[in-house]
Amino acid sequence: MAVPFRIFLTVLALGFSLGLTACETPVRTQKLPELTFAHLAPIKLDVAKIEVVSQYRPSLKPPDVEHLFPTPPARALRQWAKDRLRAAGRSGTARLVIVQASAVESKLPQKTGFTATFTKQQSQRYDLTLEARLEITSRIGRGAASAQATRFTTVREDISLLERERIWFDQTETLVRDFDAVMEKNMRQFLARWFK
Question: What is the topology classification, in CATH, of domain 43-108+123-194?
């Protein structure tokens, strides 16, 4: 009599776990485009190679959140260097040094009371900072140009994860575009003799 009862319990447990599995809601994901800057004209430099190094070390814990981004700012900047900078010389090195590539989340104060119950409030703010320096060493000398870009945005308390990721992606793209405009201007001012 004990054996059939054990079989009954096993079947019951199996059916219960299968039922829980069937009730799970699949996690929705989105396919965001690859963040590239290949549509911009390359900047040809009179150097033999281009390197990208990072001095920035993310903490990987709050309030830093750049590691959660679909494309973290540091990776976007590496892609910018790959798409925009071209080695077109026989000697020398251009080194892009990433100084800062952060995204910081801060909680916004929330209103309380009766009216707050019926309104959706801005709950978080994201501050993005990108800073880098381009150093060139070659037979004609040494030179450097730097650029910094910052952006911020806020999000509502009812935002979904997919919406948040889209906002992070868009903010990163705009941040690197801002950086690009400043860096190209500064390169033309301070590194003009290396342009080809």
Answer: Double Stranded RNA Binding Domain (3.30.160)
**Measured between alpha carbons, how far is 6 from 15 in angstroms, rounded to an integer?**
14
Whether the CB-CB separation of 142 and 132 falls below 8 Å is answered with no
Cα separation, 98 vs 74, in Å, equals 7
Find the DSSP H helices in 85-160. Answer: 114-117
Distances 93 to 19, 38, 133 between C-alpha atoms, Å: 62, 22, 13
Q: Where are the domains of the chain?
A: 43-108+123-194
At 41 the three-state DSSP class reads: coil
**Model confidence over 103-149: pLDDT tens digits?**
999 999 887 766 666 678 889 999 999 999 999 999 999 999 999 99
Cα separation, 96 vs 78, in Å, equals 9
Rounded average pLDDT over 72-76: 97
Three-state DSSP class for residue 37: coil
152-180: string of b/e by CB count within 10 Å (b at 16+)? Answer: eeebeeebeeeebbebbbebbbebbebbb
